[in-house]
UniProtKB/TrEMBL annotation:
Protein species of origin: Conostigmus sp
Domain of life, per lineage: Eukaryota
Annotated keywords: Mitochondrion
Protein name (record): Cytochrome oxidase II
């Protein structure tokens, strides 16, 4: 697994959490 894919995954998770809070 590359670092870029991990960053991307974390970013998507962060966005999903933000959407649930909104």
């Amino acid at each position: 697994i590359s670092i870029e894919s991990i960053k991307n995954k974390n970013f998507m998770n962060f966005k999903n959490i933000n959407n649930k809070i909104m």
